[in-house]
Specification:
With about 280 residues, the chain is an alpha/beta fold. It is built from ten helices and twelve strands. The strands form three sheets. The protein has a four-stranded parallel beta sheet, sandwiched between helices. A four-stranded parallel beta sheet has the order 3-2-4-5. A four-stranded parallel beta sheet has the order 7-6-8-9, sandwiched between helices. Helix 4 runs parallel beside helix 5 and helix 8 runs parallel beside helix 9.
Length: about 280
Amino acid sequence: MTILLARSAGFCFGVKRATRMAFEAADSHDGICSLGPIIHSPQLVEKLEEKGVVVVHAVKDIPEGAVIIRSHGVTSGELKEINARDLEVVDATCPFVKSAQDYAALLSREGYGVVLVGEREHPEVQGILSYAASGDVFVVAAPDEAEAIPRRKRLGLIAQTTQSFETLRQVADICLKKCQELRIFNTICDATSVRQEEAREIARKSDLVLVIGGFNSANTTRLAQICTEIQPRTHHIETAEQLRAEWFQSVVTVGITAGASTPRWLIDEVIHRVRNISN
């Protein structure tokens, strides 16, 4: 079998930065925790736990000392609680996420109704929402949900950094009909757009597609959805152990891509297993 590996598969800039900061913090502290998993890769989070990085899910559960803020960021309320406790902070928030938070605060402060394209329960979205708390905020995961936004004079549009540009564009078209003034900040990370286009290209050329990454990873799940639309024989997996030999019957070309929080060693293990199955 021929294997086509996406050029940008695996860690993006923000995840590389967060991971490096987390491992450096683990080496320089006797005990440290992260508020939520540092990235959406259970396997990497487990390696950090082996280094002494404990995951907690509420500020009240942080012991005295130091805390790592995950790549997805935290809410403004959580940040205030952390600062009030005078904890040492290792801020691994992705700069692109931080930018989206800043735009949300700006639009809200200037009186725009804020439309956020994203998944409401995702920690990144929860964080961004908290910075736009002073005005009307509408979270939409798909264009049809934007139809429910009430008409108003001014709307501001931003997006979860891992959203698809096409979804943002479609929501923008709907918002134009809902207001007199629409202000748009394209907060989608360039790495996301590149990954999604590569995924489409690989899916068109492959008899089977493997998308590697955490099942809790929004950007990996989106890659799997994109590939499935083009190549129904697409499988979202976290590890090589989840591969099944029967998937590869009559397969000549295997396409492989991976989410932005997928470590390279997991990708290499999948490639190795696919080659073994081929042989």
